[in-house]
Design a protein that fits this description.
This protein has a seven-stranded mixed sheet with strand order 10-9-8-7-11-12-13, sandwiched between helices. It has a four-stranded mixed sheet with strand order 1-2-5-4. The protein is an alpha/beta fold. Helices cover 42% and strands 15% of the residues. The longest helix is centred in the last third of the chain and has 26 residues. The relative contact order is 0.13. Bound molecules: glutamic acid. Glutamic acid binds next to helix 11.
């Protein structure tokens, strides 16, 4: 057992506060609710396949730099690996393992026919030119080419990667195998087999699951105060939809700093400002706040939509919101989760809250296979139906078993994964 959040794998160190350690503790919480399937639980503590690659690249000045790259296929039990690729200077194998495992759980929680995978490169993309990033992406794609493919493992955008990066990956994979293969990645540009609605899908999912949770809590969205950490793809799209639903965005924090306006930030001005300057800081229609004070801003809904490990016990004790929507993967640590539960603050967990992105990735993959493309309205209706049904099922499980929404999402997901695991049997 790994009840302390420490790993039994020799190739990775973890602790209760590290991403893989947090994941192990989540798995330990779900185990007692799995009945006979609990017999297979160790499977989920062992990533199926872990690839570390060297990515040597010629920089614009003629020198050569080496970057460390990873692709982890945590589970292929229910279908091909699926999950994003992130570029960040702090990426580690341990982090990518946890992110891959959360993809396994997320895909099963919303019942997509995928396993779970994730990739990462230890690089600060802001310090490299577009040409350097293209060479890094192409070499990395070539190196992991032995384990990806439309039926094997399908990468997608994540932190600091986007449609342009996916186009380079699709091209590199296609050139290497000698056939244009659009379905090898999702989140591509629409003119290269990408799906309408994919860019805003994660933010839309945060809104849909948040709206459903608020309704069940009896909390009206009209005039609700929303605070958001992270103003990339996820945070900004969710912000627009919440404002459309009658809410006010009272605080935004990004890598540059924190801004507040209790009367509500004007998104029509803020979004172009953030695009122009790469940060929300410097926006004229707001006051600046010290970073740590973001966590005690008076608000009704808090959306962490940046990186993992943000909410520990100390920040959890200061949060004013009634509802937390995890737009990011793994933003709440176990110690934080327990404090939030004691304080009666409801958390809609990442594995359902931010599943809108991978759900539209699934639609993209299906559209690529059939070469038949759907309208944006059709996509949004299908996305909404999948997320509303998934939340309803998880809510019911939480109420019946008297457990948190996170543990309930894990119960639903792990039951699906381990039922498939048992039916497939152990080879040989
Ligand atoms: N990176 C996103 C996530 O964490 C999307 C993954 C995908 O579309 O495959 O869910």
């Amino acid at each position: 057992m790994n009840a302390s959040g420490t790993s039994s794998l020799s190739y990775v160190q973890s602790s209760p506060g590290s991403p893989w350690g947090s994941y192990l503790m989540q798995i330990d919480r779900v185990a007692p609710h799995l009945g006979r399937l609990g017999h297979w639980i160790e499977t989920l503590k062992h990533p199926k396949r872990t690839l570390i690659v060297d990515v040597p690249v010629e920089l614009d000045d003629g020198s050569v730099a080496h970057f460390e790259g990873y692709r982890v296929q945590h589970s292929l039990t229910r279908g091909p690996g699926k999950g994003g690729l992130r570029y960040h200077p702090d990426v580690t194998l341990e982090e990518v393992m946890a992110l891959a495992a959360w993809m396994t759980v997320k895909n099963a929680a919303v019942n997509l026919p995928f396993g779970g995978a994730k990739g990462g490169i230890r690089i600060d993309p802001h310090r490299h030119s577009e040409k350097e990033l293209e060479r890094v992406t192409r070499r990395y794609t070539s190196e992991i080419g032995i384990i990806i493919g439309p039926q094997q493992d399908i990468p997608a955008p994540d932190v600091n990667t986007d449609a342009r990066v996916m186009a380079w990956m699709m091209d590199t994979y296609s050139m290497n195998i000698g056939a244009t293969t659009t379905g090898v990645v999702t989140g591509k540009p629409v003119h290269l087999g990408g799906s309408l609605g994919r860019v805003k899908a994660t933010g839309r999912g945060v809104y849909v699951t948040g709206r459903e949770a608020a309704r069940r809590l009896g909390m009206p969205l009209q005039d609700a105060r929303v605070a958001i950490q992270g103003f990339g793809n996820v945070g900004s799209a969710a912000a627009e939809l919440f404002v459309g639903g009658g809410a006010r965005i009272v605080a935004v924090q990004d890598h540059g700093g924190t801004i507040v306006n209790p009367a509500g930030l004007d998104l029509a001005e803020l979004i172009p400002h953030a695009h122009r300057h790469g940060t929300v800081v410097g926006f004229a229609g707001a006051e600046v706040l010290a970073s740590e004070d973001f966590w005690s801003v008076p608000c009704d809904i808090l959306i962490p939509a940046a990186l993992e490990g943000q909410i520990g016990a100390e920040r959890a004790a200061r949060i004013q919101a009634r509802l937390i929507l995890e737009g990011a993967n793994g933003p709440t640590l176990q110690a934080g989760e327990d404090v939030l539960a004691d304080r009666g603050i409801l958390v809609v967990p990442d594995v359902i809250c931010n599943a809108g992105g991978v759900t539209v990735s699934y639609f993209e993959w299906v559209q690529d296979f059939s070469s038949f493309f759907w309208s944006e309205d059709d996509i949004n209706v299908k996305l909404e139906r999948i997320l509303v049904d998934a939340l309803k099922h998880i809510w019911h499980t939480a109420e019946t078993l008297r457990i948190s929404l996170r543990t309930a999402a894990f119960v639903v997901a792990c039951t699906r994964i381990l039922t498939a695991r048992e039916a497939r049997g152990l080879y040989p």
